[in-house]
Amino acid sequence: MSIYDPLYKPNCQGETFAPSYWSTTIQLGDPAPPPQTDQTYDVIVIGGGFTGLLSAFYLATQFNKKVCVVEANQVGFGASARNAGFALPSSGRLGVLQMSKKWGEDTALQVYQEYKNAVTRVHELIENHQIDCDRQANGYLKIAHSDNALEMLKNGLEYSRTVLKDTCLSLITKDELRANYIDMPSSYGAVRTGHGFGLNPLKLLLAYKRLVQQAGVDLYEQSLAQQIIKCGGTYQLRVNEARLTARKVIVAGNAYNSKQTHPIINSRYLPILSSILVTRPLTQYELHATGLKTHQVMMDTRTLKYYYRLLPDNRLLFGGRGAVFGKDQNKIKYRNHLQAALKNSFPGLSQTTCEYHWHGYIAAALDDHPHIHCEDNIAYAIGYCGSGVAYSAQAAFRLAQLVSGQPVPKLPIYQTPAPKFPFATLSRLGQFGFYNLAILKDKLY
Length: 445
Hints:
Elements: E1 39-46, H1 50-62, E2 67-70, E3 86-87, H2 96-103, H3 105-128, E4 140-143, H4 147-162, E5 169-172, H5 174-180, E6 190-193, E7 197-198, H6 201-214, E8 218-220, E9 225-231, E10 234-239, E11 242-251, E12 270-279, H7 284-290, E13 297-300, E14 307-310, E15 316-321, H8 332-345, E16 354-364, E17 371-375, E18 378-382, H9 388-403, H10 412-415, H11 427-444
Parallel strand pairs: 1-2, 1-11, 2-8, 4-13, 11-18
Antiparallel strand pairs: 3-7, 4-6, 5-6, 9-10, 10-11, 12-15, 12-16, 13-14, 14-15, 17-18
Helix pairs in contact: 1-6, 1-9, 2-3, 3-9
GO cellular component, one term: cytoplasm
GO molecular function: oxidoreductase activity
Protein name: Oxidoreductase
């Protein structure tokens, strides 16, 4: 059986669903049927993940548009159901200091506010629609893996407090970290923000699906968007034997986009594998051995980061990078690598069984920040780089504004197209080199 890699394969229809822990907590249900006849809409949305579903929801409920969502597999296949469920005030790879250096302080402040608004938006969706998605306590800890990393965290904290006026940040000393949050080797302190929380991403996604259908949006599953053709002032999209027509289109498949649908996003993102382990429920002895006293979400400061949190049933979720090359994604050595990292981080769990392991693709932009862009009435969102649980909600609202002719903030994430990767099919070689350099850097610093 061939192994799916979006860098090379034309589409993801018919590919295997992830054997995730999330998939054991809720049933997907029956898929919505594909379109049986030709239909006309105001907007066609391609991709049934967080971004696609919420774009359609906002278009239908706030902008009174006739909308459909076309999903190649079934809602629950792609990155929105494979991630770790971290709702964070960030997106892309640029920190606040990097954004300020790149764009200036005023623009950095506005972009940062967009990221914070994204967390608030997800919170409000959960509260207003009474979504049961195992939402956990507020709090996100960025944990320094070295003394040098702690100094960098302190500099970023001071900048965020004084320039970005963020009062939700606090410094956690090494002793406080071990006494109140977690006790693990190579942890030298942390910065905590009250923005951010953990949740079950599949439960959230299926709740979005229900909201979309209740709003009167036509949802088509197992429906590959085969090709977009421009016909005068409209676009025609072939789905199986049916033709869907609309004046505007949103492409929202992120790393799982089809290369054959339309060239507008081709070569504008690098699909990168991320892998996750989930242990069996930890005993009280194991919880004591790890010093885990919180269900808040945590991530370290390594270039190749590890991220982790205690789930509601006291399983430990632990994630990090996967294979560089898609063809290697199922090789046992990558699971073994992640298990070794887990046990190095939590020596008290050296005999603990990991019951779940899965992986999925995130989409990285060449310039390390997301792009929500509209060109010739085709809009797209790309480049969340693994931080899409929260930001997808804000991106979806901005996409709905864009295709409805409403103004959006004049920020780089909304005003510029995603740059193309040169020699895109060879970009994994660059990724391989970056990983090896990052491993060395993380050891030295």
